[in-house]
Sequence to fold (426 residues):
Amino acid sequence: MLFLSLARFWANGWIEELYIKPKYFFGFYGFEYIKPLGNYTYIIFMVCAVAAILVAIGLWYRAAIFALFLSFTYIELMDKSTYLNHYYFTSLVLFLLMFLPAHRYFSVDAYRNKSLNVEFIPQWNLDVIKFLVLILYLYAGLAKLNSDWLLNALPLKIWLPARNDMPMIGWLFNYKVTAYIFVWIGCIYDLSIGFLLWNRRTRLISYLSVIIFHFLTAILFPIGMFPYIMMVTALIFFSAQFHQNIINLLNRWLKLPAEFVQNQQTFRYTPFGLKFRIAVLSIFFFFQMIIPFRYMLYPQELFWAEEGYRFSWRVMLMEKAGYAQFTVKGENGKAIVVNNRDFLTVLQEKMMSTQPDFILQYAHLLRDYYHENGYPNPQVFADVYVSLNGRLGQTFVNPQIDLAKEKESFTPKNWILPLNDEIKGF
Fold:
């Protein structure tokens, strides 16, 4: 799936559009040094694609999974304008796979080196990936327990009428009740599907609901490969016998000896290897469970200020539109109103105009640029207006604050003006 995603990205020309043509890039806090490498960026994507194939077939697995995790995560961190939840999910799965013996069975490595080949592994090696999927769905469901989603059907009440031209069912999207049905089903689905998939008795019907839910998501909303990734990932909840039947069939097609997949060998970790993995995975899941709740450390409305919003499995919960105009003033009296298109792409400007960390980074970019171009010790002021989930637009940033002097940190951004409304819930 990852290889297909990368091939699609390359074929559509998105590498050049998103990582070659832009003049500037918005790095994640603490990772600003990770940037595209000009035309050499193609090499990163090539390494990632090759590593994805090697991991899939289990060839040189240990080196391949390490290269895949590093290259994909590097791509993800190059510009947060392209941030998506399923990129984050993919990086987490790749991280887990670095600590799991995924190449020990039905792999090229196991075929070439008979000492690697085993038929059985400890159950927890599968359960850690299941648990990550469970966290994704459960936290996505908890995030939907808010008044905008459940009581006002937002933002689906805004989005669905735009799809009323769909054959057969499009006319249903003109009715508000359709949006309410969708939001309540979506919430119940996310809160329960991980547990239902894990339960043998409800697994089959639950997986059919995964197919239906994500297929509808794919045709209604342009969110890339995420629906298909989740359809495939959910197969890990099926029994060992289900996967064994598939492997046996593939083994016969490839005309490999039966003992290749029926060797009765069991994989066991060394005492140190097991303790090391338990320590790493315990820390990993501890952070996965608390990071989505870090928004509670900030005083402002989460959907408005977005402090603690990313990396928390909040999917399709808001519709935000914004307009941002910046004025740069030098201490010599010179002033200029900035044309954002001189610095940013259309996508970058869209992301910047509603998200405070983007706004601050852009203000610092302008400060540095104009300092070098005739504006000594420049001040940067922003007039930003934002609309959240169909509300009337309001001033987002204190226009009297010189953003050139503000510093990025994990502390609350006091220059964000509060939302003139309250969204209750998680």
